[in-house]
Amino acid sequence: MNAELLSLFTASFVTFFVLIDALGVAPVFATLTARGNAAYRRNMAVKSSFVATIIMFSFAFGGAWLMNAMQISIDAFRAAGGALLFLIALDMVFEKRTERREHRAEEHIGSHLKDPAPDDISVFPIGIPMIAGPGSIATAMFYMSSAHNWAEKGVILLAIGLNLLLTLVIFLAAGPLVRLLGASVAGAMTRIFGVILAALSVQLLIDGIKGAFGL
User: Fold this and answer.
1) Does pTM surpass 0.70?
2) In which domain, by residue range, is 40 found?
3) How many CA atoms within 13 Å lie on the side-chain side of 1?
4) What total of structural domains would you count in the chain?
């Protein structure tokens, strides 16, 4: 892997790692699967990661076609993606994203509290939107549409795939991991990730504006 591909892999891996925020989703996953046994939790971890993989890769491969069909330029998509990611970053810094996840988890538990068996949460809310959310889907489309050749596309897909594999590993160890980190450490890490994502989003926005206006 040459320097350019390594740089692209690093940038895309870090971006998806921050956007998916598996460490931030792990407490929600642990809460939603608390009623089930070890086999149920393992099944939900595998299924939710698989669902997210299908969604992410579908948009990654179909994004370019969708943009061409809607006559959206890559610079416009870059600027819009930068603005969207900045809003997500603000949510992460001020912990609004965590609050929404917890609220969604509480609503789901409340609506299925009297069910005789644990509910299947692999598609919703874990697979989508907690893993494959609007930000990660839009970013997958953007990175793949910006790639100039199959080597670059392969590097981007590798970054997405490794992040989803890492998410699966974190989910499988969600219970012990949540007890080890604690709420305060997980919250601090989410805020740090938010600051990193804010910087990445501003750079995308600047590059999009420069490209659109030929600056």
Assistant:
1) yes
2) 3-213
3) 13
4) 1
